[in-house]
Every structure is written in structure tokens, then in C-alpha cells.
């Protein structure tokens, strides 16, 4: 049996909805062996982020070395990187180990407003990491910070995707979850020349914690399975749509998405069989 392997370089979410927990659950659901290099520990639940505790640089570097020296991931994703120092180490290791299937989710701020990336690290993300990315997956606020644009229309989003593409990312997925002006949710995939529009029904729910992590982890898992980027992004869109629609409804605040939902549908099971 061929084993597909993927690595997430991200923060821990104690509540299990975002960060490495969301990534590893998504990898597993998509039939991919998951590995993780932790950048920070966060104390989080559905009500918000109560604490952020970055790891020492040496701890991040050693995790990446331990994985790189032995386990050859077929695809790698980054999530919460927190500081310019951590970004520098990650970029260095990506180059040393030749991790070309790199998905960069430019995580900056949690939905509740807590900072997951220091402001001074944004420039490092742009100059050190985006040029190494196969796919970058900004949401609208992240794209605004990366580009300096104010995004209020689909045309603005296309322009932001063009600018992020010009920063060196081979593909850009401009996610549309934050654009509540349209009935559906439109994600744009830009390959440097053309746009592919992926539209789905907007789910009215407060349980969207970890949508970005889960979506980018699904793209990464599919790349690890050998899929091309457009196909990987289509599957990720279906995965996140199912995960939002079949909500778990846990916690008093913004609950996590349902990582079981996509496979339950594939198997034809009802979601209360979790
Ligand atoms: N209410 C929703 N209904 C359906 N899909 C959604 C909804 N909110 C987000 N998504 C999808 O979840 C993914 C993440 O979207 P977005 O909210 O833009 O990013 P983030 O979670 O990083 O803030 C995208 O694929 C988007 O289309
Ligand atoms: C540890 C950690 N990493 C990333 C996030 C942000 O995740 P995201 O998928 O963007 O979801 P929201 O936090 O915006 O709901 C996080 N919260 N924690």
C-alpha cells in the first residue's frame, strides 16, 4: 500500500478546531499520514483565544530537522507562524529539504481578533515564504494586509490575487468566506494567468472556527496524494462545505467544523453516526 505523507507547520489549538489539530484530522480523513512541527501553543476554545505561547526557535528548527532527515513529506503546509524568526527557520528548512509542494495559509488573526502573527513578521512572510509557495490561501483580511488593498468587490479580490501571485506564489486561492455581500461563497483560484471560480452555498452558522486551516489542510492532503492544484482545491472546497454544513454544534461560542462530514458523505452515512 502506498503511504501518502504530509506535514503541517502550525500552532496548537487546545480546543481542537483550528491549527495542527484541524490539519491532522483533515489529513487523516483524506487518507494521508500526518506529521506536525509545532510553532506555538495557544489556549483556545470556542469563545476565543485565552493565551499564545510561542515555542523557542530551536524547538521549531529541531522538529523540522527530525522530520526532514527521515520522513520526506510529499506536501507541507504552514499555518500560524507567529514571528519573523520562525518564518526564517521554516523558509530555510523548506529550501534545505526541497519541499516544493508547499501550501502557505497566511494565518494572521483569529476570528475573535487575537493576533497569531506579529505585525513585523508580515514582510518576512512576503519576502521569505511566498516565493517558495506552490499555493497561498489568504482570506480577505489577510489579502488586504499582504497587498495594502481595500477589498470590497470581486474585482478587488482578483487584483489582490494578482499581486500575491506577483510576490512569487505559483497559485493563489483568494477565499471568500468574509464576503457576506453575495448569496454564495466564491473562492478564486489564480494560476498567474486565469481565474477559476469555485462557488458554494453560504451556510448560515456561527460554527466556522478553523475553516481556513481545514481548507488549506485538505489542499495539502490532496497534493500529497499526487493531485494537481485545481483538483486539490476542488476537493478541499467540497471537504470544507460538508464540514460547515454538518455542524457539530459544540461549545458556547464559534464551534469547530465537522472533520468527519466529508467521509461520512462519501461512505453514505448520516452525520449522527460519528
Ligand atoms: N459560511 C460559509 N459557508 C460556506 N463556506 C464557507 C463559509 N465560510 C467560509 N467558507 C469556506 O471556508 C473556507 C475558508 O474561508 P474564509 O472564511 O474565507 O477563510 P478563513 O477561515 O481563513 O477566515 C473557504 O473555502 C470558504 O469558501
Ligand atoms: C493555532 C491556530 N492556528 C490558526 C488559527 C486560525 O484558524 P482559521 O482557520 O483562520 O480559523 P479562525 O480562528 O479564523 O476561526 C487559530 N485560530 N489557531
Question: What's the helix and strand layout?
Answer:
Blueprint: E1 5-13, H1 19-29, E2 33-45, E3 48-54, H2 57-68, E4 75-78, H3 84-97, E5 102-104, H4 122-129, E6 135-136, H5 140-147, H6 154-166, E7 171-174, E8 184-190, E9 195-201, H7 211-224, H8 229-245, H9 261-266
Parallel strand pairs: 1-2, 1-4, 4-5, 5-6, 6-7
Antiparallel strand pairs: 2-3, 7-8, 8-9
Helix pairs in contact: 1-7, 2-3, 3-4, 5-6, 7-8
EC number: 2.7.1.49, 2.7.4.7
Enzyme class: transferase
Organism: Paenibacillus wynnii
Descriptive report:
- By secondary structure, the protein is of the alpha/beta class.
- The chain has a single domain, classed as Ribokinase (UDP-N-acetylmuramoyl-L-alanine:D-glutamate ligase).
- It is 38% helix and 20% strand.
- It contains nine helices and nine strands.
- The protein has a nine-stranded mixed sheet, sandwiched between helices.
- α1 links the parallel β1 and β2.
- The radius of gyration is 17 Å and the shape is globular.
- It starts with a strand and ends in an 8-residue tail after the last helix.
- The model has no long low-confidence stretch (mean pLDDT 96).
- It binds adenosine-5'-diphosphate and the ligand Cc1ncc(COP(=O)(O)OP(=O)(O)O)c(N)n1.
- The site of adenosine-5'-diphosphate has 18 residues, from β8, α7 and α8.
**Helix share bin:** 25-40%
Tally the helices.
9
Strand content: 15-25%
How are the strands ordered across the major sheet? 3-2-1-4-5-6-7-8-9
CATH T-level topology: UDP-N-acetylmuramoyl-L-alanine:D-glutamate ligase
The termini sit apart by 26 Å
State mean pLDDT (0 to 100 scale): 96
In total, the number of domains comes to 1
CATH architecture: 3-Layer(aba) Sandwich
Bound molecules: adenosine-5'-diphosphate, ligand LCLJCK34
The largest sheet, given as strand count, sense and whether it forms a barrel, is: 9 strands, mixed
Q: Using only CA atoms, what is the Rg?
A: 17 Å
Structural class: alpha/beta
CATH class: Alpha Beta
Which spans have pLDDT < 50 for at least 5 consecutive residues?
Answer: none
Shape: globular
Query: By CATH's scheme, which homologous superfamily applies?
Result: Ribokinase
Order of helices and strands: EHEEHEHEHEHHEEEHHH
Amino acid at each position: 500500500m502506498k503511504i501518502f505523507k504530509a506535514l503541517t507547520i502550525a500552532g496548537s489549538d487546545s480546543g481542537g478546531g483550528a491549527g495542527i489539530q484541524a490539519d491532522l484530522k483533515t489529513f487523516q480523513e483524506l487518507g494521508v499520514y500526518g506529521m506536525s512541527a509545532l510553532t506555538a501553543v495557544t489556549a483556545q476554545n470556542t469563545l476565543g483565544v485565552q493565551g499564545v505561547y510561542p515555542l523557542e526557535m530551536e524547538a521549531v528548527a529541531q522538529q523540522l530537522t527530525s522530520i526532514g532527515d527521515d520522513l520526506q513529506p510529499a506536501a507541507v503546509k504552514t499555518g500560524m507562524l507567529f514571528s519573523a524568526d520562525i518564518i526564517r527557520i521554516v523558509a530555510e528548512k523548506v529550501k534545505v529539504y526541497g519541499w516544493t509542494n508547499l501550501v502557505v495559509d497566511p494565518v494572521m488573526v483569529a476570528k475573535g481578533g487575537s493576533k497569531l502573527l506579529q505585525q513585523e513578521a508580515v514582510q518576512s512572510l512576503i519576502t521569505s515564504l511566498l516565493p517558495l509557495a506552490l499555493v497561498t490561501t489568504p482570506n480577505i483580511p489577510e489579502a488586504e494586509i499582504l497587498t495594502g488593498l481595500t477589498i470590497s468587490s470581486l474585482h478587488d479580490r482578483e487584483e489582490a490575487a494578482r499581486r500575491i501571485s506577483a510576490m512569487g506564489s505559483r497559485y493563489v486561492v483568494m477565499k471568500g468566506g468574509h464576503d457576506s455581500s453575495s448569496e454564495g461563497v466564491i473562492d478564486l483560484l489564480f494560476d498567474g494567468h486565469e481565474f477559476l471560480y469555485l462557488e458554494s452555498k453560504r451556510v448560515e452558522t456561527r460554527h466556522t472556527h478553523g475553516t481556513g486551516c481545514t481548507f488549506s489542510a485538505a489542499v495539502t492532503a490532496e497534493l500529497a496524494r499526487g493531485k494537481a492544484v485545481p483538483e486539490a482545491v476542488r476537493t478541499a472546497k467540497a471537504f470544507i462545505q460538508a464540514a460547515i454544513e454538518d455542524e457539530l454544534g459544540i461549545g458556547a461560542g464559534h464551534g469547530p467544523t465537522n472533520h468527519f462530514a466529508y467521509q461520512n458523505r462519501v461512505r453514505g452515512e448520516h452525520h449522527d453516526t460519528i
